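PROTEIN FOLDING TASK:
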Amino acid sequence: MEDSDRTRLACFLAGGMFIAGWWILGDAAGYARYTNDAQEMKGEFFVPAIVGILGLVMLNSFPWDNISNAMDENQGKCAKLLLFSSLVVIVGCFFGAVVILARVYTGPNSHADSSYGGVAILLQQILNVLSALTLRFGRAHGNA
């Protein structure tokens, strides 16, 4: 498989996972409103999803070659810092989604009729992480 075909396939797969995650999250919000669930989808439940986009962009915003760039030490340090920061954001958003599911939708004080909203938030984050990693590792090494 040529590099351009591999990059194209990775972009399509990553985009499909990204859109599927948001579709599921939007469906859960609509479902909660349609069924008059006691636990509505509040705006703060969307924070991990929105901040997760920032992590996806950060992870894919620099060429992979910059991490091991021996010619320019500052460029390598900046790339490593951006890689670390993006992974912290992505993992933090994932655990934020786990906390929302555990505390709001399945916890002892939960008054939700269904845990679908929390599962959708977590599934959206899983698809966002997979999308970011597919886009990062699926492209040719020289591409940003």
In short: The chain has one domain: 3-138.
